[in-house]
Model the fold of this input.
Amino acid sequence: MTDSGSRSYSLREIARRFGGEIAGDPDFEVRRVATLENAGPDSIAFLANARYLPQLKATRAGAVIVGKGDRAATGAPRIVCANPYVYFARVSALFNPAPGARPGVHPTAVVDGAARVAGNAEIGPCAVIERGAEIGAGCVIGAGCSIGEDVVIGAGTRLYANVSVYRGCVVGQRVILHAGVVIGSDGFGLAMEEGRWIKVPQIGRVMIGDDVEIGANTTVDRGALDDTVIEDGVKLDNQIQVGHNVRIGAHTAIAACTGIAGSAKIGRNCRIGGASGIAGHITIADGVEISTYTLITKSIDRPGTYTGAYAFEPHRQWLRNAAQLRHLDELARRVRALEKKPKQPKRSTP
Amino acid sequence: MTDSGSRSYSLREIARRFGGEIAGDPDFEVRRVATLENAGPDSIAFLANARYLPQLKATRAGAVIVGKGDRAATGAPRIVCANPYVYFARVSALFNPAPGARPGVHPTAVVDGAARVAGNAEIGPCAVIERGAEIGAGCVIGAGCSIGEDVVIGAGTRLYANVSVYRGCVVGQRVILHAGVVIGSDGFGLAMEEGRWIKVPQIGRVMIGDDVEIGANTTVDRGALDDTVIEDGVKLDNQIQVGHNVRIGAHTAIAACTGIAGSAKIGRNCRIGGASGIAGHITIADGVEISTYTLITKSIDRPGTYTGAYAFEPHRQWLRNAAQLRHLDELARRVRALEKKPKQPKRSTP
Amino acid sequence: MTDSGSRSYSLREIARRFGGEIAGDPDFEVRRVATLENAGPDSIAFLANARYLPQLKATRAGAVIVGKGDRAATGAPRIVCANPYVYFARVSALFNPAPGARPGVHPTAVVDGAARVAGNAEIGPCAVIERGAEIGAGCVIGAGCSIGEDVVIGAGTRLYANVSVYRGCVVGQRVILHAGVVIGSDGFGLAMEEGRWIKVPQIGRVMIGDDVEIGANTTVDRGALDDTVIEDGVKLDNQIQVGHNVRIGAHTAIAACTGIAGSAKIGRNCRIGGASGIAGHITIADGVEISTYTLITKSIDRPGTYTGAYAFEPHRQWLRNAAQLRHLDELARRVRALEKKPKQPKRSTP
Done:
């Protein structure tokens, strides 16, 4: 829990910025945000899920953000609002603003003479900006990043350390790329000829919209011919793999370790669980939810939640069940046979 | 879709280089390659799969590459050949040649005095080449790469940005390592003693053959004692993990997010789907195909396709089926009991 | 197999250091360690698993480390001990000591004036150490690493190339972070408001204990408010994802490609197989073993082995079984119906 600096805000000031209704002392001064569990008397915490009600009872937080139904669940000074988690996100950002760019090009950075870097952008140590690249206003390019030829990075975008963006890719505004992200690597395009693979040149780009966030060590391949597209507001967690010519619709969120095979089209406002897989060349409708550890092998044309994980068991029990799973088709045939058995009694009583 | 520069080629010139039969105007001038869907009148596209026949009907492509069976499927100028996808790969490489090395060591690169770098190799900004390393003719070492002591990189090999190769590893000729690849990290070698792990030194190397391509953020561990080996022509997609002492046979292709545990031996010309897993110490025969999201727990001694993914369902349906899966062994026993029921009629009619 | 330098040790010297009983010539001079399979006459190998007994018979190793039960399994000079693999780990470390720090800051490294770097630490080329960071005695910070503001790195810790540690994180003593590791990236904290995601600031830290090893390209997210904690002696393999506010208990080992969702608590001395998944907000007891490719969706409160992988099959067989799996609940109902069938004979023989 980081110390958030010296500035404090009263509940009244907070509610003036973000709305909501104050219950209890409006002049209570908040110094930091915290969890219910670890809050101190100068902190504001939040309750977004009824299962944390016991923690609310026990908290030492000086103030709390609660939903309308939980107005009476605490006597502490509180803000009552429609969506406590969103409200908390805003309050937390007030106390913990994203660090801004420190304008300038570090002397160890390597910026090609034919690159265009906004005057108020920050180019970190040992970052490399190649010919024809454009770095927008207020960008932060972290230490050791590599920005290829003709890449465009929109205003207000932040790349943490050691991000690699291959030539020609386009990144929108207010995007966050975490450390180790790779954008625009070659897709897995191979043609088989007489037992050997021939590389198919990957000449499309990656196009990333505005307000996208991409987690650490996630990789997004460039398109084979057309582009790979990540629309506005998409949130990708760490270690996700996005194949060539994938399109991810706006405001879709995908949890860590998921793999998306080439040319899959994922709709808008989808929520995809961690370590799931999306097969190539399929289409997923808007608003679909996919559970963690689930492989989607066919297109999904209507919203809903889809699941396909093998539920874990104690190993011995799994051994027995998994063994039977290999004979499930046979078992089903045996049940059919039992169902078809002639009603013997009638025939056997002549 | 990248503009491919100014040079154009007639179908006649293309067929002279790569073979095939021309139908329609042999003097048609091609300026670029494209998909059927997005091609313009100066583009050549291809048809490699019958399901894109509707796109062939609608395409604005000036010329098309088709298989022998699809000779009559279009009236556009076309090249008829045995394998349109391979042919297209060659044509695309003609229009989009891989960029060559720009010989020289960038002034911000750090090359040890006891390293040997070919005169026509390109060492990018902030790349580090340690003592005893050898960089072959025409290599490109991207920005921020780290090449450890005594590493050997064969001629014509390209490392994109931020690749790390640990000491002593050997990379063949014409290899491509994408950004963020790690070669030669320590394998997961641990010995348990009284509740604590003792590290087992990992002193083998990684040996990578010729014409290998390794995707972004893939990791290949060095051998514990003997070497980890990736044979010629192997293609690894992004975010694959190759454990210590694995051997991958020549011309095997492995899709993204797959994990290969230590000492597994994979044959030649295998095709392994994405997010699959290969257990340690097993052997997989030549020519095996493994479906995506499949865990291989035992050796496979004959070619064929092997699968083991749980097929996804709507969540409610999954809840019911997955619950029964935990009782599958019991269900099988109950079916056996039903099958063994005495033929009651005979006994009941004395 | 690396040549281990010129120093040799007699079995007597080895046993004096590490214990065990010598059988055969105590003056046999060992020059290197090797596998039974590839050992030469100046090597010492080991037998830790009975399945390698045939290799013991055939080995050319000059000396062998064996367990007490295998004392008579070879006539070669040997060391008999309780745990041959641990013993071998120690002998291998004797012949292959981890390279020490070469004290000094490389001229291309960028060390902020307000960072504190121990005099005998090694800061590699193009490494970046930001304001307020502390680098302990004997540390090695590899080429291209990025160490954020106020990071603390304990004594004797080694970071290989291109590691990124975000601001404020704390790394213990004698820790090893392999290339491409990311520590302290933002957790996946998002609040949904009217179809758009609001970022929840991630202001916790990552706290890593002593004697931890983290494999290549593994990522560990910082806590949302409280910290993400990795206790002493934890071993993480490559490409693992650790979500925000996870806690991993001491001496737990986790194999590659595993994903651990936010706020999961994993006990001490657990062993978690590769490509497994741990759901968010669950608790796993001390001493639990989880099989490879298994998704743990609920808390586990007692030690034992837990498994949940779909066992692979030839594809055709899988097609049939997987199809029936979608009807398993219905099948179970049909079996119940068969079981409930009236005992017809009795009623049909009036």
